[in-house]
Amino acid sequence: MAVLATHGHFDHVGAAAAICGEELPFYIHEADALALSDPEAWGAGYEAPPVPVKDVRTVVDGDVLTFAGFRIEVLHTPGHTPGSVCYRTDGWVLSGDLVFAGAIGRSDFPNSDPAAMRLSLRRFLTLPDELPVLPGHGPRTTVGRERRRNPFLVGL
Amino acid sequence: MYLDAFADNPCGTNCWLLGADGTDDAVVVDPGFSPDRVRRPA
Predict the structure, then answer these.
(1) A2 to B20: CB separation less than 8 angstroms, yes or no
(2) Does residue A105 lie in a domain region?
(3) Which residue of A has its CA nearest to B28?
(4) In Å, how far from its chain's centre is CA A31?
(5) Tens digits of residue pLDDT in A101-138
(6) Domain for residue A154, yes or no?
(7) Counting Cβ atoms within 10 Å, is residue A108 exposed (0-12), middle (13-18) or buried (19+)?
(8) How far, in Å, CA of A76 to CA of A29, rounded?
(9) Domains in chain A: how many in total?
(10) Is B6's pLDDT higher than 60?
(11) pLDDT of res. A69
(12) Which residues of B touch A87 (CB under 8 A)?
């Protein structure tokens, strides 16, 4: 079993320590790892307690993880947070808070970067239309559906 | 492949649980809430 985070916001990592316990590693992009130990210094912009995960393993763009029969590629897609990532396999992409069905993630937190967000959204649009998207909030969608209908992706 | 999502939390954040058919192994993505909802192997 492996436990992964798409980014360091507390609503995505808050239960990581309880789930990982002593034995399970927790994977998060290197630019968001500070969110676990010092959310304020990381720049969350809201009050959140530390998440004391024992075994934190950082990832970077292009890393490939193999778990549970999946080959999972790390796509660094910063903007919402510095270390936001998408996790992609041949069968789906976990988009975290980059893209939702009909919307996108916020890029107005203290450590957000709207320009990086725009580039990350363009990268998302290079994925194949038929690829299912499992977002951080809301229902599943596909890359093609968002390319056609998501108003935040039009014109990128 | 099996796929499950838990989003019954104040932020509506999806915790994804994914695994290949025929295995006990799983990947948990974004465990923000409700650790009791994530079924851990013995």
Answers:
(1) no
(2) yes
(3) A3
(4) 12
(5) 999 999 999 999 999 999 999 999 999 999 999 999 99
(6) no
(7) exposed
(8) 8
(9) 1
(10) yes
(11) 82
(12) 29
